[in-house]
Each structure stands twice: as structure tokens, then as C-alpha cells.
Amino acid sequence: MNRLQGKYVLITGASQGLGFELAIAFARAGAAGIAIVARNKALLDVARVRIQEVAPIRVLAIAADVSQAQDIERVVATTLNEFGGRIDILVNNASTIGPSPMPFLLDYPLEDFRNVLNTNLIAPFLLIKKVLPAMIENGGSIINVTSDAGITGYPGWGAYGISKFGLEGLSQTWAAELEESNVRVNWVDPGNMNTAMHRAAEPLEDPTQWANPEDVTEIFVYLASDESKDVNGQRFHAQVEEELSQAA
Asked: What's a single GO MF annotation on this record (predicted)?
């Protein structure tokens, strides 16, 4: 119940889908405060109320576009100011799929390609860079959300897949460079989930065959907690870990 007691959390892409379910799970695990970030303020405000119904904790709802460097500056500054200079857990969850249906690379619009990379790859780089000074002082956990499209180049997955390839490399490099610190970096592939983004990416598939986001949160809670304080530089598949946990 109190696996995250005293921890302060920042989650991007947290107004719905996996990010929202992670905020709920972290609140249930006893987090002291959670900052949720997304572009849509109305959805964020609804999410904030729902999280506080689960646990009476401090929830910051910060409307921001993480593809914009100035918004990232504001998000980190606001969170540190409101949480007494503490960010113990950073979850880089925000992603964009790009144009839907997704075009082949030959037809991919340049501005859309840049926007996907800015959101899915550059934003995690900047967020980690900005939170590290506070994290190094107190220790912390960084969790990046990846995809199987980041290890296999699927036709038609264009900039999204390429951004996740980059995120995997970014995660490995940060983990190696922080090996001697109290900050750990791991990354999680949540698998196929029934989310708005995945439905847009594969509109002809049956989303009822995919996992619900709330069913894949356990590995994230583990990585956020002190139970994983010696785990660094590892890739996890949330649905496989969940199956192993149930089997045990």
C-alpha cells in the first residue's frame, strides 16, 4: 500500500490512457504528490479529481505541450517549486503517433516527422536533463515508455517507430552515464493496449483483444519504488512481467 510513500512523481501524457492509470496506481501506492502533464486542460482537470478520489494527495495538473522546450522548462520548474524541490520519479509516457493512417516514409510530411521526434524523443531527453540535478541529490527513478516498434522496423510505423528506436538508445545511454549515481533509468514496453492512440494507429484491428492500461501498471510501480533501487539499464515488457507475476 505504501510502496511509494514520500515519493513525488512527474508523469507526462497523463490525462488518459496509460499515463492516467499510472497516476492512479502510484496514488494507491502511497505517493506523496503527483504532477500530471498533458495538452488538454479539461481532461487534466477531470483526471486530477479522479486521482484525488483514490487518495487524498497533492495532484498538480499542468497543461503543456512537451514538444515545446519552453513548456518543458515550465513543467519542471512548476513541479519542483510545488513539491519542495523534489522529483523522485519521472515517467516519460507522452507520445504522438503522427498522421493517421500512418504513411510510408516516402510520403511522410516533414513537419509531422519533426513533431513526432520532438514529442517522443527530444522531450524525454530534455525532461531527464532538467530533473537530474534534483534527482541526483536525493536519488530517483526514470521510466521511459517504449514499444516493440522501437526494436523492429514495421512498414507504415514511420516516425513513431523511429522515435522509439531513438528512445531505447537514449535510455541505454542515460543508464550507462548514471551508473555511479543514485538515479536509475529503465524502460518499459507496455504491449498492445486499448488506448485512443493505438486505436488511431490500427483502426482496422479489434481493440478488445488488447490489454487495458490499468492491467499493466505493476511493473511501473515496482520500478518507481525502492524495491528496484539496484535495477538500472533494463528493458521490461509489462504484459510478460504481469503474466510471470500471476503465474508465481
From this structure: oxidoreductase activity, acting on the CH-OH group of donors, NAD or NADP as acceptor
Residue type, position 8, single letter: Y
Report the alpha-carbon distance of residue 179 to residue 159 in Å, rounded: 30
Alpha helices by DSSP H, listed for 17-157, are 17-28, 41-54, 69-82, 110-117, 123-138
- Which entry of 108, 154, 160, 222 is annotated as an active-site residue? 160
Class of the CATH-defined domain 8-247: alpha beta
Q: Please say if 160 is a catalytic residue.
A: yes
